[in-house]
Design goal:
By secondary structure, the protein is α+β, with helices and mostly antiparallel strands. It has 24 helices and 27 strands. The protein folds into 4 domains: 76 residues; 232 residues, 2-Layer Sandwich (Alpha-Beta Plaits); 240 residues, P-loop containing nucleotide triphosphate hydrolases (Rossmann fold); 75 residues, Arc Repressor Mutant, subunit A, CATH 1.10.10.
């Protein structure tokens, strides 16, 4: 495979992605990623066909030819991100994702009410004890097995005849193809009249006592016993002979495998017939691979040679070398593959356990020390937002210098330590010159330049889900107090107006914080339009997630400069803080290339640039206010939770906008893109209201 080498199964990733839920550009991204990874065009086409209404024959091939490569190519990491956004949770062979939990420590403890507890040693010994001759009913074992796995009209394949060879001084029994023309109903009917082993031999065939007998656990089509003759890919075989049967049973129960029948082989292993309920041979392979990986990871050394759907398993109700092949249990664990997979993913995570408040009440952990006094703690997240003229990059460079030197930034004292500045926008020379210009203009001695690292990525930026692990790898062991990412629009993955996609995007910052133990500070721009009447937390472009996610949000808004002022521009810093009390707005001047506090207080009573005045007469001002209401409603709707009906509850909009019920209803009534519904407010399709 050329391009990105991956531990992910590409087909498994595509199986998890519904193309109908992707936009056109996202669909193209999948194609570009597949071509970059050396995958065939047919794979993209087959996947695209699942979105039948939008699939056009030949379109994939035409687009494929147009993918000529790029200095910053779309890779399989993007496909992984799309899959995870649609619920995919990977399990890797030999390299499981960090955070997967051991069966013995976790699955035993995470049980819902009514779920079976792990069997004790005494219980296990009783369950796995070979039945006594006087109580064992071999025909009843086989009948229950058939009734559990097959419908009456389905054909069953089984083997009682073997080819015997002398090898290394002993006999080797090789099973024949056996019988495959009888239905389960025919066998079940005749089993009702079998009273002992002799009757069973007459029905099935006289099997050799040394070898026992076998059965195929999936129904056949009556034409043979190959995988191609399997009529329904319903079950898979899990078998291991590297542990004791007690250990095998404990793991099978602990993993809640959806076992239809559990058979003792009469030897060293249990045969678990597990529900996989696959719709095709390809899906069967994927699910068996997943099943075996989970078993291996949790200590059950599965025999992987048993992975094909026409595989033989031990037939219950017969003898083998003086021991019984018997049915241990039916219908244990979860009831279906889907139920089991959902349950497994819910318990296999890296989430911390709940803790009792009483246990820590008298010994509370220390709060993280401040990084920016009164604003941000070490290890937390901060967003700096503002319009394009605010000098946000210069402000962040000033912050880098303040942390490196242990000085004040915009009036707030900073802790001293190492900092990484991730430059995504400026060319290398311009970026480095800016650092020197800032130091010079501030008049600070460059005494601790070794505390500042600059990672210049202009032209090499990748989506944040790909950048985060690369950043973590490079920054490990550097002991940074802060990582500053400037700006984030270069690395955003997904639609910035989508709350769920931006929540996933912002989770990447948490990963960096957690892995490196440092603060993450990032920069974003304002939305379009006038900002003066908005709250500081509503000015950043895109989803309201940007306002809610960081621990500190600092926002810059321009002030109308006093008469006679030339050169420098006036700004006000407002904040929304999670860890500290709200601070009074800070007035500053941006006198290129640095921001300076308004030491004279002349900006104290200055208001943001007068939007209404800038627009002229009363009619224009009235239109501006209407536009503000429309934008406020759009912002509120995007920030609130959309219910399955498509409605946002009215109470959420009221709380977000901090307006009365009637005022919010007026907002809705004057906006052509929204309408009232029974439960609140819903969006009108754009085509219905845009001329």
């Amino acid at each position: 495979m050329k391009g990105m080498q991956t531990k992910y199964d590409v087909r498994e990733l595509l199986a998890a992605i519904d193309p109908a839920r992707l936009g056109y550009q996202e669909w193209l991204n999948v194609g570009m990623a597949l071509k970059e990874a050396g995958q065939p065009l047919e794979l993209w086409e087959d996947w695209s066909r699942r979105d039948a209404p939008r699939f056009h024959p030949g379109e994939c091939a035409a687009k494929w030819r147009s993918f000529q490569g790029s200095s910053a190519p779309v890779t399989l990491g993007t496909v992984v991100q799309y899959a995870k956004e649609q619920g995919y949770r990977p399990v890797f062979v030999g390299d499981c994702e960090r955070g997967e939990l051991e069966w013995d420590a976790v699955i035993n403890e995470r049980r819902e009410a009514g779920e079976p507890q792990r069997a004790s040693q005494a219980d296990m010994a009783a369950i796995l004890r070979e039945p006594a001759d006087d109580v064992w009913q071999p025909a009843a074992d086989l009948r229950r097995y058939l009734e559990t796995l097959f419908d009456n009209d389905e054909r069953v394949g089984y083997v009682t005849h073997f080819r015997v060879e002398e090898r290394d001084g002993g006999k080797v029994f090789s099973p024949s193809k056996g019988v495959w023309d009888r239905t389960a109903g025919q066998l079940i009917q005749k089993l009702e009249h079998c009273k002992d082993d002799e009757d069973l031999r007459q029905l099935l065939g006289d099997y050799p006592a040394e070898a026992g007998a076998y059965i195929r656990f999936n129904p056949l089509d009556g034409g043979g016993v190959k995988d191609s003759n399997v009529a329904d890919f319903r079950f898979a075989l899990v078998e291991s002979d590297e542990q004791s049967v007690e250990q095998q049973y404990a793991i099978i129960r602990q993993l809640e495998l959806p076992v239809a029948c559990l058979v003792h082989s009469g030897g060293k292993s249990l045969h678990a017939i597990v529900r996989v309920e696959a719709a095709s041979r390809e899906q069967y392979r994927e699910r068996v691979r997943y099943l075996y990986t989970v078993c291996q990871k949790h200590g059950l050394a599965v025999d992987k040679q048993n992975s094909n759907p026409a595989r033989l398993s031990r037939l219950p109700g017969v003898w083998r070398n003086g021991r019984k092949q018997w049915l241990v249990a039916t219908n244990i664990g979860k009831g279906s593959w889907t139920e089991w997979q959902k349950w497994l993913e819910s318990v296999s995570d890296d989430l911390p356990e709940p803790e009792s408040l009483s246990a820590v009440w008298d010994n509370l952990p220390d709060l993280a020390p401040p990084l920016i006094e009164g604003v941000l703690r070490q290890g937390h997240k901060m967003l700096l937002a503002g319009p394009s003229k605010a000098g946000k990059s210069f402000a962040l460079i000033e912050l880098c210098c303040a942390i490196a030197e242990g000085r004040s930034w915009l009036g707030w004292q900073c802790a001293q330590g190492r900092v990484l500045y991730v430059n995504l926008e400026l060319d290398r020379a311009s970026c480095l010159h800016r650092f020197k210009d800032v130091y010079t203009r501030l008049g600070w001695p460059a005494a601790n330049l070794q505390h500042i690292d600059v990672w210049n990525l202009r032209g090499n930026a990748v989506p944040m889900d790909q950048l985060a692990p690369k950043l973590i790898r490079r920054a490990a062991q550097k002991n940074y107090l802060a990582v500053i990412i400037d700006p984030i629009y270069k690395v955003i993955t997904g639609d910035e107006n989508s709350a769920d996609q931006m929540a996933n995007f912002c989770n990447q910052f948490d990963k960096v914080c957690n892995e490196l133990g440092c603060a993450v500070i990032y920069c974003h721009h304002h939305s379009k339009g006038y900002q003066g009447s908005k709250r500081s937390m509503d000015r950043a472009s895109g989803s309201g997630v940007f306002a809610r996610d960081p621990d500190a949000l600092l926002d810059l808004i321009e002030l109308a400069a006093p008469p006679g002022q030339t050169g420098a521009t006036a700004w006000r810093v407002e904040g929304t803080l999670r860890e500290f009390p709200k601070f009074a707005p800070v007035n500053i001047w941006f006198d290129y290339p640095v921001h300076l506090l308004d030491a004279t207080g002349c900006l104290q009573d200055v208001q943001p640039e007068a939007e209404a005045a800038a627009r002229g007469p009363k009619k224009a001002a009235g239109k501006s206010r209407q536009q503000e209401r429309l934008e406020a409603l759009e912002k509120a709707f995007a920030a609130c939770d959309v219910e399955q009906s498509g409605c946002v509850p009215l109470v959420q909009l009221i709380n977000y906008l901090e307006k009365s019920k009637n005022t919010v209803r007026d907002y809705v009534d004057e906006h052509p893109g929204f309408e009232r519904c029974k439960d609140g407010v819903k969006r009108v399709k754009k085509a219905d209201w845009v001329n």
